Amino acid sequence: MGLISLLISLAAEKSLSSPYWQFNFAFGHYMKMVRQQNFHRKVTGTLLPLLLLAIPVSLTYLALSLVEDSVLNLVLSTAILIVCFGCVKTRDTYKCFLQSAFKGELTTCDLHYQQLLTDKSLPNYGFGQTLIWLNYRYYISVMMYFVVFGAAGAVFYRLVCSLDEQQHQLKIKDPESAAITDVYAKVLFWADWLPVRLASFGLMIVGHFSKAFPIWLENITQINKAPQCILIDVAQKAEDIMVDDEDCTAEPCLLVKLAKRNVLLWFAIIAVLTLTGTIY
């Protein structure tokens, strides 16, 4: 069932661009409800962020557990996975970047790039490196959590990502806010710990294995290294990025192709594991 859901979701995600199919739409309504119920006054300390994580994940798990019909369960799981997959805003930014680059509007390209870094609260990596990280965050990691933990796992991962991004935005707008917490960052770090090492292994397989393997081997032993650093370090070695300095589209296009090959690799791995009965 999981394989069928993945296949349908990957095929349908890009065509369902309506806001109702975007995770940010559901997340916005969820946070609006939290504010209306004054959760921040009723619950304090570490319990609040843990509760904000637990409620949607638990409801998703319980709702699907109560559905006995396998076909309906498949439909609901697939719908949830489609919502958790991808990010239309990121994809649109990438398209706008390429369009501006082809027109020679380098200043506009830089504006799109800076906007993406701000929206996703990311360090100052190159545009292509940023895209390969976001491909992991919105596709590969969600796939892994869905396959292992079901739809509730996919909801958990996307929710903790969104809550962490919200914290970064809050730190910029109001550094003294009492709502600032590092709980989400810590949870997300460990949520990414194994998936990012598996994803970087995939980049090594679909890219230049001999060049990327030493970097991957070195990174898996560095327990506290930032997940994005691990993925980007391996990606840079897995793909030859010897391009014209004046061509700002070359690096992003090469790394996006590498990321897409990685998604296909992990889909194939999941398919083999499903067909052999290792996972269901």
TrEMBL record:
One of its GO terms (cellular component) is plasma membrane. GO terms for biological process: response to antibiotic. InterPro entries: AmpE (IPR031347), Beta-lactamase_Reg (IPR052966). Pfam families: AmpE. The keyword Translocase does not apply. Keywords: Membrane, Transmembrane, Transmembrane helix. It comes from the Bacteria. The keyword Chaperone does not apply. The chain crosses the membrane at residues 43-64, 71-88, 138-160, 263-279. This is Beta-lactamase regulator AmpE. It comes from Thalassotalea euphylliae. The lineage of its organism: Bacteria, Pseudomonadati, Pseudomonadota, Gammaproteobacteria, Alteromonadales. The gene is ampE.
